[in-house]
């Protein structure tokens, strides 16, 4: 019989079942720590690191003391990458999750927050370094436009873009990475992972790496140390090695933002005024747009792998490789 | 006792555009009124005005002593075919049950009397055996019987029907006439818009429309050859046929002179 | 056997996604039934896309996306109603233009954010794996409310789908209930888009209900079929997405559309092989 009563009967059953299931689920998730009782057969702890550059350093330091998994595959854009169900499972089951912080891993936000709520031990790299913010020596706008542009961006784009926005590209400076890995030691120990020796070794090698980079960059005169990049990713590098940031094709801390016609025009003007010698494209930069600016300003377009490890998977090769690319282009 | 339908100087149409003007009709309970006319003559518009679906442009119209469209449970309506009527997942029974909704409202529970009315309506239209059949599997004629059964189930004091015999076969038409006579017998009134001139002849009043009122009165007064030529543009001749009169077309529409009674028989046509 | 069950028993977020998806399926079964019966498919699609500027604006302002979606859908409903009542333009044209305009506006607004690509993807395709408990509560509340409305207004809705004139004549004002129906559809879109995204929620509205229309003889059965098929699609879609690393929201919707076509094909073959079955006796 097509009576409203029978339909409401069915509906209330469905609603009741849904409510019961919800209650069961809520009961499961509150109070329970992350269900990480499965360990790999060798009984080792599992560490999940979100992206490759940080993962390389952590692997180096930890060695065999634990299983290190990197979530975002090397070559993928950490700003835009979205996890699969298995990835989220890995996060929830890890003994320790190491994340960058400062919203680098935009697609992982919900998953990481959920895991933290569930009690998964989490290490946030940005908590242990000196964070740089936009506006300190960075030419988001040229000096003439200076204030107006800064205010505009601050108002319209909020924290992510304007003055005071925090730069997440921590891995671009070896000494910042040294600070991170050093801070990692006690956290690892707390999880029963003994990597103190490895940490010390890696910290020392990062100091050496810094010296090596300075040598490589010595061929570029200070006046020529001017960077135009795909997005605003070279802040820490620039601060460490005395480079001036003229601008970026995507004037944002993330590769996921949009190019704007007005800002591109500004950029072209600034490139010419500053006598920039190369435009460095990176992941997430449209090659066509970069080439268009290059043609307009007569400046060469060079690709730099700022978010991707080289073939040997080593952080040292990553940094020296980028340094060499820049040195060659700007000498 | 007030009239069932009372229209005075009524003009009907859509927006500002009047389709028929100056309608004066009084229909008493227990009477049947037929609106006869071609498509576009204003029949459906007038019916919808009586139902309160569109507002009168001028004049007044009172239904059961009140404004049109206010006494939902007492007025039953069958409009012309709506495309979605026949494609929904509905059984014939469901459609007829809808006839009770006006009385039941949102929350009223269907009782024994409602169920009896529904059952009787199905039987009356000869489709009791098709109650569980999906509407969309029925033929056009059977569907029309279902829609008429829905009207019957309403047990209205006024039945307003637009082309009620469309698609009906002989037994369907007979069931329909039965429905009408039963309704009239219990004091209801019936207003139909029809092409079926034989049907119109059985009513108490006829209004012949063609964008205006061509004629109004009893069937004998209205359904004459002159008036019909005026309204339809074709010649019909009244023929004595055993005990009743039938109208047949004696000329095709391009006939020039109606006074000369040509002898061409083109068979029965009631359009 | 564990292949079918452990992804959900081992992971709270998968269980939540399943629950959210089933609630969305129930919601869409109710609202979708009326969309299909009343021929609101085009409007349903327009609503689903038209909420984009609302969601985008809300995200930029830091407000919950659902609030923005509600505002966006309200604008669409008012706009669509105004267009169909006032002008002589065919409704299709005007609705289509409104929908495209809202979509473009939405993209413009999102482009002002710094996470443009990520945000757009999440809005268009949903993030069912990121549903949390408060989202689930909202879904549950919406399901209960929509189901209640469908029960309370069962008669006028049925009349409206059957023949709007008959609704008016029975004392249920067709125009009013039409708006109520639109609001129900809009609400469904607003709470469901987080799971499967604005681009795909239309699929969840139409495909299960469409299959139900082919299979059922009565409206209640149609809704039940829609609920069942929709829920099954959620389960299968999530399972496939887990085991084969596929986008979750899109997998669900793809499965449900496939189900529709399977049902459709079966019905066509059945009708072709027994031609006498469909012809009614005189």
Overall description:
The complex is a heterotrimer of chains A (331), B (271) and C (282). Chain A is of the alpha/beta class. Chain A has 11 helices and 8 strands. Chain A is globular, with a radius of gyration of 24 Å. Chain A starts with a helix and ends with a helix. Mean pLDDT of chain A is 82; it is low at 1-16, 18-38 and 139-161. Chain B is of the alpha/beta class. In chain B, 30% of the residues lie in helices and 26% in strands. Chain B has a 6-stranded mixed sheet with strand order 5-6-7-3-8-9, with helices on both faces. Chain B has a 3-stranded antiparallel sheet with strand order 2-1-4, covered by helices on one side. Chain B has a two-stranded antiparallel ribbon with strand order 10-11. In chain B, α4 packs antiparallel against α5 and α5 (140-154) packs parallel to α6. Residues 255-271 of chain B have low confidence and may be disordered. Chain C is mainly α and 282 residues long. In chain C, α7 packs across α11 (174-196) and α12 (198-215) crosses α13. At the A-C interface, α1, α3 and α4 of A face α2, α7, α8 and α13 of C.
Concise summary:
Chain A has helices at residues 4-29, 52-62, 85-93, 109-117, 146-157, 174-190, 196-217, 235-241, 261-274, 287-297, 315-330; strands at residues 45-49, 66-70, 96-99, 122-124, 226-231, 244-250, 278-281, 300-303.
